[in-house]
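Collaborator request, handled under Task 6.
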Amino acid sequence: MKNPFIKKFIPVIALFVFINVLILIFKTFLIQNGFGINFLLGANVVLFLLSFFGFFIQTKGVHSLNLNAFIRGVYSSILMKMFVIMAAILIYILVKGGEVNKPSVLTSMAFYLIYTSIEVIQLMKIARRNPNA
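Structure tokens returned to the collaborator:
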């Protein structure tokens, strides 16, 4: 594994697999407690893809000699995540006719916080090793 991007993204991949496995293991329990399994799996996929693209954009900024490139990368990542998540929630509300599964939405928000935390930790490790960051 010579590509540092992939090497630093492994914890996010592991988190994605871990969350999917947990959802599938506790499927019956989650359904009995009012969670939407398809929503949780879909939210996990969307958050994983957003983390991938955001991490890619921010990693390019960390390796740039220009500080403004890093700032643009961070802002681009934040805006991309914000608009995609807003669109996903809007589509979900329209498809469900206003019936929102609150436990699933709150759980997916927790997933977002975990993904973001791991992403920031990995970016900080990259930035520490980069003398230009």
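The cover message to the collaborator said: "Residues 65 and 98 are 48 Å apart (CA to CA). The chain is about 85% helix and 0% strand. Please let us know whether this matches your experimental observations."
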